[in-house]
Specification:
The chain is mainly alpha-helical and 388 residues long. It has three domains: 9-56; 67-170, DNA polymerase, domain 1 (Orthogonal Bundle), CATH 1.10.150; 186-375, hpI Integrase, Chain A (Orthogonal Bundle). The chain contains 17 helices and seven strands. It has helices spanning 43-56, 67-70, 81-88, 95-113, 123-135, 140-159, 186-192, 198-201, 206-218, 222-227, 265-272, 292-305, 310-315, 321-333, 338-345, 348-353, 362-375, and strands at 9-14, 20-27, 33-37, 237-240, 243-245, 249-251, 259-262. The strands form three sheets. Strands 1-2-3 form a three-stranded antiparallel beta sheet, covered by helices on one side. The protein has a two-stranded antiparallel sheet with strand order 4-7.
Length: 388
C-alpha cells in the first residue's frame, strides 16, 4: 500500500434484501483495491469493526473459504450457525425445511461447488449449473429450490464479509408452470361428508373424516390439523395455535400467528370425543397425531367411493389441500372481504393483497358462518364419534 493512501474508506452499500450495510475499501499487498462487508448497518459499530481489523492486520482476509468446508454445518439443525442465529432472534425454522435444504446442499450444491473457493463463484457458473440440472432430468421447480438454497448461503457469506457480493442474485429463476389447485363442487363435498354414509364413504376411517371435515369447514392446513390440541377446542370454534413438524413436533403456525375460526357446535362436540387430551386427530388417544399418509390415503379412497377415480383426481389436481383452497374460494365468492378471509384461514398472501381492510365485524363473521352452513352436512342428531 502506498504511504499517501488512507488505510481504508467506509461507505454504505445496499445489499440484495434492500438493507444498507457498511462496507470498507482497502488495498491488498499487490495494490489492488478490495471491498469487504463489516456485517452491520450501524456506522459506529462498522468503524469499530474496521479499526479492530486494521490493528489485527486483517483488513484483507487471507483465509479464503472453500465452499464445502464453510457449509459443512449448514442446515444441520442443532449446529448450523444460520439457523441458530435466527432462533436467537425470535424467528422459527422448521426441522423438515432444514432437512430438505440439507439434502439439496449435500446432493447437488456440494458436487457442483464443493471444492470451489467462495469468492471464485461467478454468475455464469451458477447459470450453467441450473441448465445442467435441467439436462439431468430435474424439474424447473427443483432447480429453483437449489438456486434459492445457494442464494441463501451466499447472502450470509456476504453479510459476514467473506465475499463482496452474491453472484447468485443475478441469476433469474427458471420459468415453471404451477398446477392450478383443484377444488370440489358443492355436490361433491356434500357426498364426501354426508353423515348418513360416512362409515362407508371413508371406509371406517372416522378420524380422517373428522379431520378433513374440519379442514373443509375451517380451512386448516394439514400441519395445523395435526398440531390441533384438545384444549384448542372452544365452545364455538377452534383456536389455531400450532403446526406440526414430523421431525421437530409441535411448532408455531406457518405465519407465526394465532387465529380463532368459528365452527358449528355439533362438529366441536364430536371433535371433543376423539381424544381426552393431546392431539385431537390421533389413533393413540392423543399421544401423537395421525400421519399425513393416513389422511391422504383416506381422502383418495373416499373420493373414489363418490365417483372421482384416481386419474380424475390427478387431472383435477385434487388433494387434501383442495379442502382449504375450496373454503377460500367459497368465502370470496360469498363476498367476504379479503382481509377477513386472510384472518380466518391464516393466509399471508391474501393479507398482503387486502391491506385496505381491517378486523372482521360481526356481519363478516356471519358471512363465514353462512358459507359453512351451505357446505357442511346437516346432522339429524348429535352423533358422537366414539364407536362410530
Amino acid at each position: 500500500m502506498r504511504k499517501d493512501r488512507q488505510p481504508f474508506g467506509l461507505f454504505l452499500r445496499s445489499v440484495a434484501c434492500g438493507t444498507q450495510v457498511y462496507y470498507y475499501s482497502t488495498y491488498d499487498s499487490e495494490g489492488r483495491r478490495k471491498q469487504f462487508s463489516t456485517g452491520t448497518k450501524d456506522g459506529r459499530e462498522a468503524m469499530r469493526v474496521v479499526v479492530a481489523r486494521l490493528k489485527a492486520g486483517t483488513l484483507v482476509p487471507t483465509d479464503r473459504q472453500v465452499f464445502r468446508t464453510w457449509t459443512a454445518d449448514w442446515f444441520d439443525y442443532e449446529v448450523c450457525p444460520f439457523i441458530q442465529g435466527r432462533l436467537r432472534r425470535g424467528f422459527t425454522y422448521s426441522h423438515v425445511h432444514a432437512a430438505n435444504r440439507r439434502a439439496l446442499l449435500v446432493g447437488h450444491l456440494w458436487p457442483a461447488f464443493g471444492d470451489r473457493l467462495l469468492d471464485s463463484l461467478q454468475t455464469r457458473d451458477i447459470e450453467a449449473w441450473l441448465i445442467q440440472l435441467l439436462q439431468a432430468g430435474k424439474s424447473a421447480d427443483f432447480a429453483n429450490r437449489c438456486l434459492g438454497t445457494l442464494r441463501l448461503i451466499l447472502s450470509e457469506a456476504v453479510r459476514l464479509g467473506l465475499i463482496p457480493k452474491n453472484p447468485a442474485v443475478q441469476v433469474q429463476p427458471l420459468m415453471h408452470t404451477s398446477a392450478e389447485k383443484g377444488i370440489l363442487t358443492d355436490a361433491e363435498a356434500e357426498a364426501l361428508f354426508t353423515l348418513a354414509r360416512r362409515s362407508q364413504v371413508w371406509h371406517g376411517r372416522m378420524v380422517a373424516f373428522w379431520a378433513l371435515l374440519t379442514s373443509h369447514l375451517a380451512g386448516l392446513r394439514q400441519g395445523e390439523l395435526l398440531g390441533l390440541q384438545v384444549e384448542d377446542l372452544d365452545i364455538d370454534g377452534v383456536r389455531v395455535r400450532n403446526g406440526w413438524d414430523r421431525i421437530g413436533g409441535l411448532k408455531g403456525t406457518k405465519t407465526q400467528s394465532e387465529r380463532f375460526v368459528p365452527m358449528p357446535t355439533w362438529v366441536l362436540e364430536n371433535l371433543k370425543g376423539l381424544s381426552r387430551r393431546g392431539h385431537v386427530f390421533s389413533l393413540t388417544n392423543g399421544a401423537k397425531p395421525v400421519s399425513p399418509t393416513y389422511l391422504r390415503g383416506a381422502f383418495v379412497q373416499a373420493l373414489e367411493f363418490i365417483g372421482i377415480d384416481r386419474p380424475q383426481q390427478v387431472q383435477r389436481h385434487l388433494g387434501t389441500h383442495s379442502l382449504r383452497h375450496g373454503l377460500v374460494s367459497r368465502l370470496l365468492a360469498a363476498g367476504v372481504p379479503l382481509a377477513v378471509v386472510a384472518e380466518k384461514v391464516g393466509h399471508r398472501t391474501l393479507a398482503l393483497t387486502a391491506n385496505t381492510y381491517h378486523h372482521s365485524t360481526p356481519i363478516h363473521a356471519h358471512l363465514v358462518a353462512e358459507v359453512q352452513e351451505r357446505t357442511m352436512p346437516r346432522p339429524q342428531t348429535m352423533l358422537q364419534v366414539v364407536g362410530q
